[in-house]
Every structure is written in structure tokens, then in C-alpha cells.
Specification:
single chain, alpha+beta, 5 strands, about 30% strand
């Protein structure tokens, strides 16, 4: 039997409803710097930071909830997850010139390699995956 091991590192941050989304982006950027991604994959860093902004904004604006932001990186992928207190799962909407907003999950869908949402006992989690630069 072949043994396999998984190398992973992760971080978590609670972002109260009254916190600024910039706080989440700055926190995420700092951890992406420790992974070396700001040098090796600046385009991916931009995509991750925009995704963090959208997911935290959705938690604050639509769920009227604090956001629990978790980032975990393994050999293949950076997983960005945001948990909030709403059980309403997000769905991407068509972009419209008739309304402001409503493009957040459309952007996440375009930026992330994959994304998913699932209900939890006290709300939901929305997760996006970004392939590691050397994967």
C-alpha cells in the first residue's frame, strides 16, 4: 500500500458586520505573500483578493451577518471559504445594465477554478478554489 501525505496550511479570521472589506483583503494579501504568490502568481492573487471582497461583501450585505473567512492551501489548491448566518445559497445572475450590483457570484465564477456553496447548521459556506502556481 502506497502512503500519501498532504501538506496544508490554513488561516481563519472573523470579520464582524461593521468591519471593512479592505480589512479582509489586506489580511488575505498578507497570507498570500507568505506563500510567495504575490511574486509567482500576481494575477491569481488579484483574483483571490477580488473573490475575498465579493464573498465578504455578500455576507455583510445580503446575509446581514459577520463573515468567517478561512483560507487553506494544500499542494494543489488555495481554498477560500466564507461562512455567514444566512441559509440562502448564492446563485450567479446575468449582468444587467438595469441594476447596480448583483455581479458578485458571476465574478467569483469567472475568477475561481471552481466554487461551491453548501448549507451548514447555522447558515452557509461559500468556497472558491484557486490552483497553486506550481500545481
Amino acid at each position: 500500500m502506497e502512503s500519501s501525505s498532504l501538506r496544508a496550511v490554513g488561516w481563519a479570521r472573523s470579520l464582524p458586520l461593521d468591519s471593512e472589506v479592505k480589512t479582509a483583503r489586506d489580511w488575505a494579501r498578507g497570507h498570500l505573500e507568505t506563500l510567495g504568490w504575490t511574486t509567482t502568481a500576481p494575477e491569481t492573487v488579484d483574483a483571490v483578493l477580488l473573490t475575498v471582497s465579493e464573498l465578504v461583501t455578500n455576507a455583510h450585505t445580503h446575509a446581514h451577518s459577520s463573515a468567517q473567512l478561512v483560507m487553506a492551501c494544500d499542494d494543489a489548491c488555495l481554498h477560500v471559504s466564507v461562512h455567514d448566518n444566512s441559509s440562502d445559497l448564492p446563485t450567479p445572475r446575468e449582468a444587467s445594465t438595469e441594476r447596480l450590483g448583483g455581479r458578485g457570484m458571476f465574478l467569483v465564477d469567472a475568477l475561481a477554478d471552481t466554487w461551491e456553496s453548501h448549507p451548514c447548521p447555522h447558515g452557509k459556506s461559500v468556497s472558491a478554489c484557486f490552483r497553486a502556481p506550481d500545481a
